[in-house]
Queue: 3 jobs
Job 1
Amino acid sequence: MSLPPGTAEQELSLAAAHVDLERLLREQQALLNSAGVGIAFIRNRAVVRCNPHFAKIFGFSSHEQIAGIRSASLHPSREEFKALGRAAYPSMAQGKTFKTERRMRRRSGHLFWASLSGHLINPDTPLDGAIWIIDDIDEQRRRKALLSNALREKQLLFETAAVGIAYFKQGMLTRCNPHLGNMLGFEPESLLALTNIPASIAYGTSPLSVLAQISIGSTGNFEGEITLRHRQGHNIECEARSRWVDPLDRTQGEVWILMDITERKHIQSMLTKAQAELERQVSERTNQLSETIQTLHQEVEDRKRVQERIHWMAHYDPLTGLPNRTFLAERSKEAIAQARTNQTPLAVIFLDLDRFKHVNDSLGHQVGDELLQEIAKRLRAVVREKDTVARLGGDEFVLLLPGANAQGAARVAGKLQEASLRPYQIGHHELSMAPSMGIALFPQDGENIESLTQSADVAMYHAKLDGRNTYRFFTPQMHAKSVRALQLENAMRRALERNEFTLHYQPQICLHTGEIRSVEALLRWNQPELGQISPAEFIPVAEDSGQILQIGEWVLRKAITQLQTWHQEGFQKLKVAVNLSAIQFHQPQLPELIGRILLESEISPNSLELELTEGVAISDPKAATLTMDALRESGIWLSIDDFGTGYSSLSQLKRFQIYKLKIDQSFIRDLDHDSNDRAIVNAIIRMAQALGIQTTAEGVETQAQLDFLRDQGCDEAQGYWFSKPVSAEQISALLASYKPWLPNASPK
Ligand SMILES: Nc1nc2c(ncn2[C@@H]2O[C@H](COP(=O)(O)O[C@H]3[C@@H](O)[C@H](n4cnc5c(=O)[nH]c(N)nc54)O[C@@H]3COP(=O)(O)O)[C@@H](O)[C@H]2O)c(=O)[nH]1
């Protein structure tokens, strides 16, 4: 109902309407002011009015500031503004609210995301404008983008992670990644078939059963190793962790991260085994090494001991423990040097026990050795600490007395004699043993230990000559007897017991048959200090000193024993010729001695030939003839050695039972160019033939000599042309391979 205009009612009604409108406007304004979104009235593409939030969104300090602003300026560009208009107005024209999200521009020019909602005030009259509600969703959009990124990343992780990931809710598998399927031998789809089924039904004995069971009772905080089963039945060792998806809401379930560590475990177990094996080997090797080290230690110790022993043996006499010759030499060098520097005296005593050999021969070496040990003790007890008592070997001792002059040395020698007065008790034997001593003084009797010992030895020899059990000082007159001869004589006294002698043999060839009939035994002496000494030199010394008897007996025994060996080897016809010195020959017991040796060796006397020198018969031809007869009667052959150099007469030769003359090599040597020698040799052969005596030429060295001798009718030859004197073994070899040469042919 309408009131008539100008009336009081109308006035009142208008006033009331006005009040209502104002209230409405106030309410509207309050709504706009307090709205949490931006609201603007747009008309004619310009902001007519807006609320404070709208102004704030676009960066204006008050809504008044924004009023009148072209709405296009609130958009990033004109094009986008137009595009919004094109999109919005067709539906707004139908009275619908247009909603969109667009980027808009703040007053500062910065763009931001906004949600827009537009509505025409009156769709019939679009020019009335539109209301736009705008919200700043920039932060919201950013968060959303972050969230979706995070979700994408999570999904990517889930799908591509190289660990198995499974989500469980109350024991039910809700989700799992492909890697877990792969780990357990499932296609992802078939594993998914187990999802959302109660664990008890779904897993039974399936690969995830363990996990499902743990999961049911899980605290959501499991960390450890579990064993899953592969679809094909084998075990998969896993390092597993579980966490509540939301600790505050456990109904959200839990996530399990599973890493297949089967390979690692396998490698670990192999490593553990390898390490154990390595440790075993190391400990074995360590044991071996420690054993080796122990052995090495032992070896070093042994070697040290051996070296000490070697050193000891090289410096000490093993029987008496006294220094030996080497040690004596070392000590004396020092002592002599001091004596020379300080001009002090020094004496050397050479001590040899009288008739010690007799003890050895009669009571045996054991007693001899013990006696030597006792004597050594007494010698040592007599001298001072700084003196040296050395044993050279056998029964010979040398005392080196630094600081001792003639008087001092004589005093020591006297004490030694005195000490030897007391008998030695060896076992049940009471033995007396006296020394003979020679004293040499430094420097007059020698400037080094060799010459001092030599002089003392010579003096000792004179002490022995002067009746033994005494001492003598060395004097230059003692040199009257050649030092060399004395040396040889002294050395010879020890040669037999030290086995220094050997025999060599030289074949004697029959010039009629070419056969080796006999071999001549020739003595060799290799003296350790003096070297090889020729028998031409030492036999006369041995004869002079009387030692030829012992030596000669040794030669006879040795040669006959060797002949026995050759006979046993099959050379029964072989004979041996032994040189007999005149002194030996004159021994009345000679035939008996030789007979005994032959008997002992079971050698027929016919196999032995004795070579005598022409001189044997000079002094007592009668006795010589008797000895020769006795020898010959026993069957032994006798020959005259070195024939032509002595004084044999034809009449003598006729009387002697000689079967062979050995023509001295001095006639043979020059046969080729000395007609006298040829004449002599010819005469000897003729003469011998006339007497029915055979001839042997000595020292045949050439074919020409041999030819001549054969032409002359010489029966035998001996010399380097056939063979030098050689060892018994070499003779055995020669006999074994020997082929008698034809008389007219060369023997070589
Ligand atoms: N009473 C003893 N006398 C012996 C003994 N052993 C050897 N002797 C005598 O010593 C002298 C030297 O003998 P040796 O040095 O052995 O010389 C002999 C031969 O080696 C040597 N010879 C032999 N063939 C040749 C040769 O062709 N040329 C050459 N230059 N020399 C040669 O001649 C020596 C032979 O001696 P022998 O026949 O006895 O004359 C010597 O007088 C030996 O007798 C022994 O045990 N007891």
Job 2
Amino acid sequence: MVDSVPATPVAAAAAPAAASQPAQQGQRNVVVLATGGTIAGAGASAMNSATYSAAKVPVDKLLAGLPELSKVAQVRGEQVFQIASESFTNDNLLVLAKRVSALVKQPDVDGVVITHGTDTLAETAYFLSLTVHTNKPIVVVGSMRPGTALSADGALNLVNAVSVAASKDAEGKGVVVTMNDEIQTARDVNKDVNIKTSAFQSQWGPLGMVVEGKNYWFRAPVKRHTMQSEFNIDSITSLPAVEVVYSYGNVPRTAIDAFVGTGAKAIVHAGTGNGSVADRIVPALQEARSKGVQVIRSARVPYGFVLRNAEQPDDKYDWVVAHDLRPEKARLLAALALTKTNDPKEIQRIFWEY
Ligand SMILES: NC(=O)CC[C@H](N)C(=O)O
């Protein structure tokens, strides 16, 4: 563990804070909301690409270390949290989304960047895409190596994020993630690889690339997001409890019963294969449903998607399928759906549309 923040190649550049650099004419205004993660991490030496402390470097220092930002946009930073993203809670999501929503309403803000740990970055990005009503670009970014490491990836990822957030051509494309030169849509992207800088992947492919400050778009998202969303963070004050139960050979019903016992409103089953459910736990899920708990059938298999009434009779059991959403993203969509309805047909409609 590293107690203090050593001088870093990024931070040691010691340029004036990007926010205080003179504005270039016609520059767009981007706010960087910092939440922690490796992009704000620091290791003991340049060799420490994987052994380091996340969430150490404050946003002002991060921006000051990147004078290139002043060529891209007029940038100012805000420290919202300073945490590793595996420790994100529902409350963190609500606080962050409400701050983003407030900022995008300001006429002097053209785009917002969120710096974030990579472990749950895709969850936060998806939550923002479901709940913030705006056409302005929202970009979530992290890094796989701390700024102190050789070949650190955070500096370019952040410059790319600000560049996309400042772009007119990114308007209306929803929340995106800029890692490894790619522009990914929040809904589809996941952290699929650890250690490597090519960590963020989508089975449907990136929307485009950002190279030397210019965006190259190849496709656009078709699922509902931001302006088309029926969920709005401005009217959400808490999220219903939705929990994930992971499946495997010899799985017991213990976790399902425990979550029902602690008052879960929905259980997302991370099933094997096509979202299959072991015979031995089907009764536990049926009992949960009979007590009013929603059952959402997803898959632990990363690619493909779960079909309704394949593997299990969803119509008969009154269950919902998670489409192609990973269990952790299905948790978020189910929680938002439950703020509106308790009808599994409506919840299924929501899972098809978002
Ligand atoms: N690469 C990272 O950002 C991982 C660091 C940490 N586990 C986090 O998610 O915040």
Job 3
Amino acid sequence: MSTDENSNELHLVMFPFLAFGHISPFVQLSNKLSSYSGIRISFLAASANVRRIETMLNRTAATQIIPLTLPHVDGLPEGVENTADTSPATVELLKVALDLMQPQIKNLLTHLKPHIVIFDFAQSWLPPIATELGIKSVCFSVFLGIAIAYVTACIGRNIPPTIEEVTNPPPGFPGTIGFRTFEASDFLYIFTSFHGTPSVFDRLMKCFNGCDAILMKSCTEMEGPYLDYITKQVNKPLLLIGPVVPEPYSGELDQTWTNWLTHFPARSVIYCSFGSETFLTDDQITELALGLELTGLPFFLVLNFPANLDSSVELKRTLPRGFMERVKGKGVVHSGWVQQRHILAHESVGCYVCHAGFSSVIEALVNDCQLVMLPLKGDQFMNSKLMAMDWKVGVEVNRRDEDGYFGKEDVFEAVKSVMMETETEVAKSIRENHKKWKGFLQNDEIQKKYIIDLVKDLKTL
Ligand SMILES: O=c1ccn([C@@H]2O[C@H](COP(=O)(O)OP(=O)(O)O[C@H]3O[C@H](CO)[C@@H](O)[C@H](O)[C@H]3O)[C@@H](O)[C@H]2O)c(=O)[nH]1
């Protein structure tokens, strides 16, 4: 591909799926790329998501957000345009709406005439449109390579794997990481079709087959063997952005939380949260809350609920009886958005109990808090394995194989192993490994080199 002869400018269209867990990495990618001169970014966003994206995207003269109109779909409430605003009953309808956007996107691309469109897993219909218009297409994975590697291990199958097949690592898969029964049954979601639309697996395969290159938010240092495995499975160039670390939030942590956290000694508070779109069951909330109480440590627990539920009612309903009175002065429970990066950076915070969302684990590693993982769905299981078993930078809460049940003691034991038994060999090596990865993730030179190479790769696609 050649860029404009006169300007030598590279015009990229960004087109993420309708979820902030996807939009955020696309914004990070845009911000990294737009810091280089000669890159023009047109960021496509459903109208309802534009305002929030405006607060995240670095605006330059060469960056624009283009609002999209989400087509009407029966059952999907007006104005609901991302997964966080849907309910579990309607979330899959977003893919129906997305599929109906094909004429709108074709029209836009025809007018924008970008060199490359960088798109997400759900838009499997995009590569043929791009090819027809003479535009290159790059499928960007917001997931770690280890998670994509496990998906590509299913290439060539005519029927979905059984739970037994998923629990054993496929032949040639790096390491010995396999799924437990409850994780395998969650993994089978990717083979399920909803409302007659293609499954996640079918979409991803079409994206990979049709695109000109696959772009991973990863690098060889982080997970070389898994990236090599993907390259063997899919016959496409694999581009890498390197270790993308979310930029620090601007501004200060809200005074209420600063005042509360400052009450406690350095590195003593457990911050516990599950990202933007992961919800716990009633039993999980009970055991988690009791487990945190059992540690005796101060804690800041964030619990969110699907958008169709009233969170204050849900908190009252799900927290154990008498819990808030017992933990008064030592524990807080909050529902809603918090300034996570500020909280993780606060000196009183010593432990992060989380769902192992990709950005969240990276944010934990660039700070000094210990990582305790309680993955609940999708790629979180693989992220957690990479952190606990490959990088050995944290621990996972022990679970029952068949259904993933964990009790309060399991939460307590996991926290104890990194927060109280700090002199064991395991705890010491976790701290050492954490330090090593923190250094790597904060190394600007490595990051810059990956971005420079990526720009070169995009220009020669
Ligand atoms: O109250 C909150 C909640 C989240 N965040 C930020 O939002 C991002 C969350 O990212 P991540 O941890 O990756 O979680 P989710 O958005 O919850 O994750 C979805 O998307 C990820 C890929 O991007 C996947 O790894 C997860 O499985 C999937 O649930 C992070 O930057 C957080 O700092 C906040 O600042 N405040």
